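Protocol step 6 of 9: fold each sequence in the batch and record its structure tokens directly after the sequence line. For illustration, a two-sequence batch is reproduced in full.

Sequence one:
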Amino acid sequence: MSLGQELAPHLPFLRRYARALTGSQTHGDAFVRATLEAIVAAPDSFPREVEPRLGLYKTFHAIWSTANIEEGGDFGSENLGNAEGIAQARLSRITPLSRQALLLTALEGFSATDAGYLIGAQPGEIDNLVQEALGEIERQTLADVLIIEDEPIIAMDIETIVRDLGHNVTGVAVTRDEAVAQARAHPPGLVLADIQLADDSSGIDAVRDILAEFSVPVIFITAFPERLLTGTRPEPTFLITKPFQRATVKAAIAQALFFDAATVPAS
């Protein structure tokens, strides 16, 4: 099996991680492209002492660490808008290493040992880094949250997680029309949306309707993440895979709000 064939199954999930890390599909996918270009240019340098997924993420981190993102980097820095500027200001209050540890373990499911390998930290440091990231991000960001989910048990679980983080749940919608109506009645600061809804309507369409009227960060929840991580069209920045872990939802919420310029502390 060629190296390309070994890496192909892992690319959608590297895109998920890169988008969450940068807060942008455009910037995240650009880092993934740069990673692939580096591998193609020097295949003999690819880490073969570890499994392909670890080697892929390790190569990504080599690109990430040299891009100097705090200064804008080389990936479209001339197009950074106000939201990106606010996110960069927030980076001064929480280290990128902490955020990487959080996303690698909670979102991507790496062990502390593997996460340590990827970011150059000892395994024993990872737990402390994760707690540092969660503590700082949770203190920074509180929001009104709209949940779009037609499965009652899953909706209840998400609502519990959201409230445990200190956020307010404005409503739980089970159809496209209901979601739009609730957003209009109580404009949310964050939307958590399933893809397939109760009346066979689409959570994607519901979000599209909401975004036509409000600027709000969105996290999609789906059992088929690969369909929304192709890198070939406009796709979600933040994506959670079903079945999900509570830590995954917490990490995604924290990261989505971290990059949201409109979020203000709740009263």
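Sequence two, same batch, same settings:
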Amino acid sequence: MNAVLITGAGPTGLVLALFLARKGVPLRIIDKNTGPGRTSRAMAVHARTLEFYRQLGIAEEAVQKGIKVNAVHIRQGHKEKGRVNLGDIGEGLSPYPFVLSFAQDEHERFLLKHLIAAGVEVEWKTELVSYTDKGGFVEAEIRKEEQTEVIETAFLCGCDGAHSTVRRELDLGFPGGTYEHTFYVADVKASGEAASKHDLNLCLEEDGFCIVFPVRSTGMNRFVGIVPSALENREALSFKDIAPFAEKLLHVKVHEVNWFSTYRVHHRVADQFRKGRVFILGDAGHIHSPVGGQGMNTGIGDAVNLAWKLAGVLNERVDEIILDSYETERIAFARSLVATTDRAFQAVVGQNARGRLVRTVLIPRIAPFFLRFPPIKKAAFNRVSQIRIHYRDSLLSMGKAGKLQGGDRLPWISVGRNDNFEALKTAAWQVHIYGKANPGLLTIAKQHNLPLHEFAWSRASANAGLRRDALYLVRPDGYIALADSEQTINKLTEYLSKFKIRN
């Protein structure tokens, strides 16, 4: 019996499989498609995702395959109305203080290569037909072409997208709505100032907008925009129909079209992310507007959150109660994110006077001015990069030391060529002390096979909100589980005992 069956081989499913494979968990991953995506539309890879990739040892390669976005040019017609310099906007906050443009179709092939290297092959043209949670295991029927197979698995993970079979079989509500606009996405070769090879271009008019991303692998640009109202009801829409509007809006000339597609945008969150031995992740559980490029990164965050917990349970390293924290931690963030991006999206695309004001005045003129100031840039990076996500209300989160609480992301501290995130590559439970560890703590950590890392106290530690000589028990995903100012050994041992934690 395979320990985990993953259905859906998009970024969420692939990252889940990668983390599980690294922990030695037997798994199968299936997808009804013939291969990795070719017409996907997610482009932005944020800092928190790259921090997770560093734990897998693939972050630097991802950065090389993508393009660091240096700036956002805000245009109206042929004129640049504003510019937001990004560069290393999150300097001092993350080892990846930038936004990476990395097309999802290329991204999926990148993840797939590393999964194959880990000894796991995606079973393409294979779909989940039905399943039953038997209590001690899940019985699933899968089909490849005309052949069906009934298998048993300890856990089933639905990463199968907005039309998820897993979610439907769980009979979960998926409340929310669909935006009235139809979007288009196209991979094109174009010339003109908006067809930059390094920067992002946001082109706005009173009645529309289009975002232009550079794509390293093809040297092309990806257009993501709203279908003009004059074409909204046209059947079999092609880029030839869109081209006159896009070229006028962007002030570019399109020479070649690699592919083109249209889609509708939803905003929904499932009622639950788990029932028994069945979980849903990514678009199966939540769908967002494209504002801020959050959707794919959120799905990857789901995968990392669940992967270490499943691996811990299956490898008998933690108590099964820890699985209860997955839904609590991720559904709260998904609901908050959908509400936030929905408000922002409605403001940007609205066809009323407010929407036109946002597109023609607020974004091109006011936003670039305020984003010159370091505190505002820092706040913007914290929000968009997903490093601000915390799990303070989780059953796994306890204590406070300095400005940090259990459930907060461990802040990144860099001193010279060294940083504290190097220790996280093990994806294991560990103790961090920024200062000096007491001899008793060293003994207890050794007894529990718990790595203990001492980092010299520095100005950077203080600025990050850490407390000198405090104890921080860090989860495998880099979040603080327990924070204690006094290095109280009993608190640490009680926490380890409560969740039956051992490395």
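Proceed to step 7 once all outputs are recorded. Observation for sequence two: Residues 398-498 form a domain with the Glutaredoxin fold (CATH 3.40.30.120).
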